[in-house]
Specification:
Elements lengths: L1 H6 L11 H4 L3 H14 L7 E7 L5 E7 L2 E3 L3 E7 L3 H8 L2 E8 L4 E11 L2 H10 L2 H9 L10 H13 L12 E15 L7 E8 L2 E6 L3
Antiparallel strand pairs: 1-2, 1-5, 3-4, 4-7, 5-6, 6-7, 7-8, 8-9
């Protein structure tokens, strides 16, 4: 099996990423690449890996969904503040995001610092979610050990009865949004012979510096 894994490889052959094509702002290029991913057959083009570090120095990574981005607010996502990632971000707000769009042979790696979104922004997004997603945020004490799935089903039944006839639930105080304000954004485009294109935008004195990295 290990020999089979060692032999697995593919030749990347998409168009190269030039400095001119990348432009001068990482948000513009990310917007173009995300649009391309949405138009392709990529499953969940807004899926991303969030990497954090716990108080023992142990890196942690998990997949979640991007829910917005802008030059002013950075990359936005939502979660349970009391989950593992919520506690890790509270202790160490430095983290990274990774997007992988297989069909396009592209990867984006973002590093920076997170902070909580204003409550009004979290309220607005929460109320826009489907009702079952709203109630799910109340049901799950994310990352906590539970004896069985029955615990979730029982809590769901109690909350369904409690909020019967109510279309929009109040946002749980332990649930809300984060914004990642970037200091570095790297764009990777697969190329032949493993000589991939890597262009990094690095924030320096409020200005983006564009650099090419060796693959």
């Amino acid at each position: 099996m290990n020999r089979d894994l060692a032999a697995m490889r593919r030749n990347y052959a998409k168009d190269p990423l030039s400095e001119k094509k990348a432009g001068d702002c990482p948000f513009q290029l990310f917007n173009h690449w995300l649009a391309d991913a949405m138009e392709s057959e990529t499953l969940d083009p807004n899926a991303m890996t969030l990497a954090t570090v716990d108080n023992q120095g142990q890196p942690k990574a998990r997949t979640l969904l991007l829910k917005g981005f802008s030059k002013e607010k950075g990359w936005i996502f939502y979660s349970n503040y009391e989950s593992d990632k919520g506690r890790e971000l509270a202790e160490n707000p430095l983290c990274s995001l990774l997007f992988w769009w297989e069909n396009l042979e592209r990867q984006v790696r973002i590093e920076g610092r997170v902070q909580k979104l204003p409550e009004k922004d979290s309220d607005a997004y929460y109320t826009s979610r489907p009702r079952d997603s709203q109630i799910g945020a109340w049901v799950s004490e994310q990352s906590q050990i539970i004896p069985s799935r029955d615990v979730l089903e029982e809590r769901l039944a109690v909350l369904e009865e409690q909020y019967a006839g109510i279309d929009t639930l109040p946002r749980p105080p332990h649930w809300g949004g984060y914004q990642l304000l970037p200091t570095s954004v790297e764009f990777w485009q697969g190329q032949p012979s493993r000589l991939h294109d890597r262009l990094r935008f690095r924030l320096e004195k409020d200005q983006w510096v564009k650099e090419r990295l060796a693959p």
